[in-house]
Amino acid sequence: DGAKAETHDALRPGGSFKGALESFKRLAKRGLAPEWVFIPTRTNAGEIADAYALAADAGARTFVTGPLMRLGRAARAWDSLAASEEEWREAEESLRARAAVTRGGPKLSIYPWGIQQEMVSRLESPQAMILVVPNGRAKLLNALPFAAADLKTKTLAEGWKAVVRAWKNPQVKDFIARAQTDASLLLHANECWDI
After folding, report:
1. How many Å apart are CA 91 and CA 94, to the nearest integer?
2. How many C-beta atoms surround the C-beta of residue 61 within 10 A?
């Protein structure tokens, strides 16, 4: 979450930049091809190009980033945490420029949109996957609170059919439409509502 310890550790209270970086390097040294995920915020967006260089030095296979997703802690602290569109554009430009001159650097994987557009896009064309959360529930998408099946009592095949059906449910369509203008709905992302 930054190219410097003080930036990372401020965003991840109780975390350790040094520990995360050392662990990452050990994974790369063992040939496990780790991916570096950079979550851009108002406080670290200016460090994205330096973080890419650090990822290259650490042996990253891929550098993954994109606009901050309005989920979890980010949704609760959006006004103080989110980079502006201009800050994100500048960060993305600096990242692409650094990647262009870094020989043998990690592949860039830049997600094109935020979570609200993600929901609209997935409603039109759902992912061919099931998101299973720690309580065993099969959800449609990380941003949606809907759980279509409980995989502690259903088979994976049954869960898949339930997820496919749920994407066509009017409640899901309505929630996604309302979330486009009412971002407070995103605060329910970690919940599991039966559908």
Report:
1. 5
2. 14
CA gap 1, 69 in Å, rounded = 14
**pLDDT confidence of residue 114:** 87
What is the dihedral sign for C-alpha 41, 111, 95, 52? positive
**pLDDT tens, position by position, 138-172:** 999 988 999 999 999 999 999 999 999 999 999 99
Q: Is 44 exposed, middle or buried (0-12, 13-18, 19+ CB in 10 A)?
A: buried
Query: Residue 8 is encoded by which pair of tokens?
Result: 């990372």
Contact (CB, 8 A) for 163 and 149: yes
Q: Helices 115-124 and 170-179: crossing angle, nearest 10°?
A: 150
Q: What SS3 state is found at 58?
A: helix
Per-residue 3-state assignment (H helix, E strand, C coil) for 140-183: CCCCCCEEEEECCCCCHHHHHHHHHHHCCCHHHHHHHHHHCCCH
Phi-psi region of 58 (alpha: psi -120 to 50; beta: other; left: phi over 0): alpha
Separation of alpha carbons 71 and 148, rounded Å: 20
Task: For residues 128 and 87, give the distance between their C-alpha atoms in angstroms, rounded to a whole number.
Answer: 33
SS3 category, 98: helix
Give the chain's residues under pLDDT 50. Answer: none
Q: Which of 9, 4, 61, 13 is nearest to 37 (CA)?
A: 61
Q: What does pTM read for this prediction?
A: 0.81
